[in-house]
Automatic annotation (TrEMBL):
GO molecular function: methyltransferase activity
Biological process (GO), any one: methylation
Domain of life according to the entry: Bacteria
Entry protein name: Methyltransferase domain-containing protein
Domain Methyltransferase type: 47-144
Coiled coil: none
Lineage of source species: Bacteria, Pseudomonadati, Thermodesulfobacteriota, Desulfobacteria, Desulfobacterales
Alphabetized UniProt keyword annotations: Methyltransferase, Transferase
Record bears the keyword Ribonucleoprotein: no
Organism: Desulfobotulus pelophilus
Family annotation (Gene3D superfamilies): Vaccinia Virus protein VP39 (3.40.50.150)
Length: 320
């Protein structure tokens, strides 16, 4: 499956920038939030997982000062294109470019900052991989993630429900699950969640755009019947009545700070025993976890060993 995803994104490397409007805008917001966390980073190298064509990478080079950067992607053509762009724009920067699976880190990896933009939704073992990324941080290091999550494509899903058709979008991570995983590592986690809405000339154009960036790659081994997609587009177009098709993306920006004190981090065994979690009423998602949630939430008393905590904030809708 990983080979299939890598091949899809490599094949679309040169059409990606034209169609990836949500990804580009999300990277700008992500970098704005990252500025608030980048001032006190440890003096250690920076790792980027899933560089793509370099939307996040360019801002990351500027934010993280003169640190060495290890810039990676699963898709060889994406790495090649990103390197060409970055070598041109930042000739003096210290950078290595690697074709690498972000779920398989080198042993004894040690970074002050690990960044991944719109990539973890392609992970096959989310819990283990996020825990591994936290492990790769030096004490006080930061894991910064953006991702498209559960709750995206509601318009597409509603059409399928209305027409009694299967909703064939790939499964996406739940924000609450990511929060719980990172909290269990002992990190202090800050999450910003919100909705981005892109307008497409038609449903057909939306599906074409997914394909043009490689994101139309199905993770299921089952083949999608093209007649099913045609029925969805026909019903959705009828629903639009000549208007553009709006598509919602549920987007998360996550910042997990590893404790300075190594003794406060988790053990190697990761267990996820759900405990009640109170989440802000404004959030659409509901989930489970443990520890103290801050911001627009209520605290849960902790009786176990020291755990991380999560602050959750929402941002206004972004329309493209």
């Amino acid at each position: 499956m990983k080979e299939k995803v890598a091949a899809a994104f490599s094949a679309k490397a040169h059409t990606y920038n034209e169609h990836a409007r949500v990804q580009r805008r999300a990277s700008e917001i992500f970098l704005d939030y990252l500025k608030d966390f980048s001032g006190n980073l440890p003096e250690a190298p920076v790792l980027e997982i899933g560089c793509g064509t370099g939307f996040v990478t360019k801002g990351l080079i500027t934010l993280s000062g003169g640190r060495h950067h290890v810039i990676t992607d699963l898709a060889p053509a994406m790495v090649e294109l990103c390197e060409a762009n970055l070598r041109r724009d930042f000739p003096a920067a210290s950078m290595d470019f690697l074709v690498m699976d972000g779920e398989v880190l080198r042993e004894n990896s040690s970074f002050g900052l690990v960044v991944s933009g719109f990539t973890i939704q392609w992970f096959t073992n989310l819990a283990q991989s996020l825990a591994s990324l936290v492990d790769s941080l030096v004490p006080g290091g930061l894991l910064a993630l953006s991702f498209q999550g559960e709750g995206s494509f509601t318009e597409w899903k509603k059409i399928c429900e209305k027409e009694n058709l299967p909703f064939s979008a790939n499964p996406l991570p739940e924000g609450q699950v990511v929060a719980q995983i990172l909290q269990k590592t002992g990190c202090r986690v800050t999450i910003y969640s919100g909705r981005m809405v892109e307008s497409y000339p038609s449903p057909k154009y939306f599906f074409r755009s997914l394909g043009a960036i490689g994101a139309g790659t199905p993770l299921s081994e089952e083949k999608t019947d093209p007649r099913l997609l045609a029925r969805i587009m026909k019903a959705w177009s009828r629903e639009c009545e000549g208007r553009p098709a709006e598509v919602s993306y549920r987007v998360y920006f996550v910042f997990a700070q590893k404790p300075e004190d190594a003794a406060a981090t988790r053990t190697k065994t990761i267990l996820y025993t759900p405990l009640p979690l109170v989440v802000a009423e404004t959030l659409e998602a509901r989930g489970w976890g443990e520890g103290a949630f801050l911001g627009n939430t209520q605290s849960v008393k902790r009786t176990e060993e020291k755990k991380g905590c999560v602050e959750w904030q929402t941002f206004p809708d972004v329309f493209l």
